[in-house]
Amino acid sequence: MLESSESGGPVNEDLKREAAAMALLEVRPGMKLGLGTGSTARHFVDLLGAKVAQGFECLCVPTSEATAAQARSLNIPLTDLESLPHLDMTVDGADEIGPGLALIKGGGGALLREKIVAAASDRMVVIADATKLVDTLGRFPLPIEVNPFGLGATQIELTRILKEFDAEGGLSLRHDKAGKTFVTDGGHYIFDASFGRISQPKALSDALLEVPGVVQHGLFLGLCKRAYVAGADGIKTYDA
Ligand SMILES: O=C(CO)[C@H](O)[C@H](O)COP(=O)(O)O
């Protein structure tokens, strides 16, 4: 049942949960699943936890310590990619969903593990509310995960790449709520790069990965196979 926001429309959390419920319909007994990170993925994990409480069997790999903690609290069986290197499906959120289901991810700082887990899966399914749909990627700042070693040198290279790709804004090192440098689960830092518009995602991806200090970036190209996007007018399914 949808609650109403002050404007009378459905509130976002309900939309996220509806998208999560659609993804849950794809889950079959015995499946090996990747569990995404963020507020939308959190709904999926909650719903999966309710199924597990009723005896549903699955085995899951979390994409962050936060998701692992949530899944553990719901008694969802967990393992890692060392023991289970191949998964049937990963369900995750996204910061932007562009043409061809190209994504920007990493707003929650879990992009590296999210990409590793998605790449190890037969199928990546994204769940989101309709605010995440864009015609061109880049309005959301692109997260770039970097090794803390040589941070200054990496920043100079990234600044050069931003210029080469006509970025509208600059780079900023991510901080946590306490004002400290944000550290990922893998012990890395994140630069958020304000492109405004990314007209050549593949070329940008290649350029970023050539920088030695770059561990990974939040462009997910060719990974997402389906997106369930919930809006005020219902849920739409997009296939790559
Ligand atoms: O990539 C992510 C975390 O690294 C998230 O999936 C992304 O930030 C979307 O989060 P939310 O569902 O809270 O909007």
Sheet with most strands: 6 strands, mixed
CATH class group of the largest domain: Alpha Beta
Percent helix, as a range, is: 25-40%
**Ranges with pLDDT <50 over ≥5 residues?**
1-8
**CATH third-tier fold name of the largest domain:** Rossmann fold
The termini sit apart by 30 Å
Q: What gross morphology would you assign? A: globular
- State the total count of DSSP E strands: 13
Strand content: 25-35%
Mean of residue pLDDT?
Answer: 95
Strand order of the largest sheet: 2-1-3-6-12-13
Name the hetero compounds present. Answer: ribulose-5-phosphate
* Cα-atom radius of gyration: 18 Å
Question: What this model shows, in words?
Answer:
The protein has 240 residues and is α/β, with parallel strands linked by helices. The protein has 2 domains: 12-130 and 221-230, Rossmann fold (3-Layer(aba) Sandwich), CATH 3.40.50; 142-216, 2-Layer Sandwich (Alpha-Beta Plaits), CATH 3.30.70.260. Helices cover 29% and strands 25% of the residues. A 6-stranded mixed sheet has the order 2-1-3-6-12-13. A 4-stranded antiparallel sheet has the order 8-9-7-10, with helices on one face. Strand 1 (32-35), helix 2 (39-53) and strand 2 form a beta-alpha-beta unit. 44% of the residues are buried. The model is unreliable at 1-8 (pLDDT under 50). Bound molecules: ribulose-5-phosphate (5RP). Ribulose-5-phosphate binds at residues 36-41, 92-95, 105-111, 114.
